[in-house]
Amino acid sequence: MTVEELARAMEKDTVSLPSGEKITFLDTPGHAAFSAMRARGAQVTDIIILVVAADDGVMKQTVESIQHAKDAQVPIVLAINKCDKAEADPEKVKKELLAYDVVCEDYGGDVQAVHVSALTGDNLMALAEATITLAEILELKADPTGPVEGTVIESFTDKGRGPVTTAIIQRGTLRKGSILVAGKSWAKVRLMFDENGKPVNEAYPSMPVGIIGWRDLPSAGDEILEVESEARAHEVIDWRKYEQEQKKIKEALETVEEKRKEHQEAHRKDREKYGNLHWKERSFIKYQERKKQKLLRPKEKVERDSNMLPIIIKGDVDGSVETILNIVDTYDASHECELELVHFGVGDISENDVNLAEAFHGVIYGFNVNTSKVIQETATKKGVKIKLHKIIYRLVEDLQEELSSRLPCIVEEHTVGEASILATFSITEGKKKIPVAGCRVQKGQLEKQKKFKLIRNGGIIWKGSLTSLKHHKDDVSVIKTGMDCGLSLDEEMIEFKVGDTIVCYEENEVPAKTSWDPGF
């Protein structure tokens, strides 16, 4: 096999070496959002190939992957990539990894380090050989006989074939007609295909395989077990559902017990607060207190109800949906728009999704999925937004923008001019004495139609409008820098003092931005 052929093969799942041996690669995304997917991959694999860029060094995701390997107790082979670049520094990478207990053979440890280039294909064969060598040293073997055991890597729904899973077989040999159980779903294997989409009749340990025949869609990470019959599969599923129900009942009872303790504590505090008052009197007092609190906060409730973004999430595979839900879970709506997850699922956007979005006035987000022209037209008629993305951070950016659009605008003040009060006096209009300030404009200009505020000792003591603005005896609308003027306010009770500052300003509404940062 040439270096170019090996490089092309490594983009797939299985690599065949000249010796006849095969390596199955389970590639997990390096993006920070796919942490759960990397953790799940570490639990399935026998050897982790840790890829670190020679020009970037150890990154946050590198440290996280090392921790996954330690948690799963899986050995590491280090692949230092981009060694073809001029700024590459493989030795720096090895030294940085020492801080995380990854000690390469050059430094007296047991971790093999291979300098590679994904661009040129340099040393990819050496990386494959290092992996095979480590597998032989560790005597990594699997039993091809007995009942099948495996793990669901991904699951999705295909329009023509129904629920489909991609899986790794870890024990036994999977054949057509086998009865499998995964999570709370079961399958009678109708069809299997390899990483190239070609039908296969058998799947051996370490072989990646697509499985068709599931009655329901299992979740990524579910353990696959072979059972002897459909009846046995139903028993297993029923038992697992029963256990789940019992767990829910237990959690509900615990919640009831917590509420009971809270009520007991509230009753004890009531006795301390209200003494020997009759229960009717206590109830009336509490009602008055609740009524008072409700009257104090009607505006807050309206704002919270209006600042809400209901969303529907659809993804191509179970792992993608899981990743997006994990990102949504990082959102905290304590001080801004509320994010409400209405529905999520695997597969293309359906009419039911559009109907749900219409009912909740929500937005549909699709990741690596499609929507038919008919569904799109229906959504347009119903005023439902459908947003499709193929890059995870683009979806998150779109979600941030949508959240920001639901927030009330921020009012920003822009100073037009400032004037210092040099003298104070009053004029008589009818029976009224009106305070007047003699000012000199220090910055900008004063415009009568704008808003004004009076500042004294650094604090704002008045905001409002002017009733008059004069230059000498003439009424004017604008006074510029360096000019003197006399002015009066729309609040006659405010007294001017020499040294006060009059600020002319205007208010501009600026779109608000959500403070939510998912952390990648």
TrEMBL record:
CDD domains: IF2_eIF5B (cd01887), IF2_mtIF2_II (cd03702), mtIF2_IVc (cd03692)
Keywords, in A-Z order: Coiled coil, GTP-binding, Initiation factor, Mitochondrion, Nucleotide-binding, Phosphoprotein, Protein biosynthesis, Transit peptide
NCBIfam families referenced in this protein's UniProt entry, alphabetically: small_GTP
One Pfam entry name: IF-2
Family matches, as PROSITE patterns: G_TR_2 (PS51722), IF2 (PS01176)
GO CC aspect terms: intracellular organelle lumen; mitochondrion
The protein's name: Translation initiation factor IF-2, mitochondrial
Coiled coil: 239-273
Gene3D superfamilies tied to this protein: P-loop containing nucleotide triphosphate hydrolases, Translation factors, Translation initiation factor IF- 2, domain 3
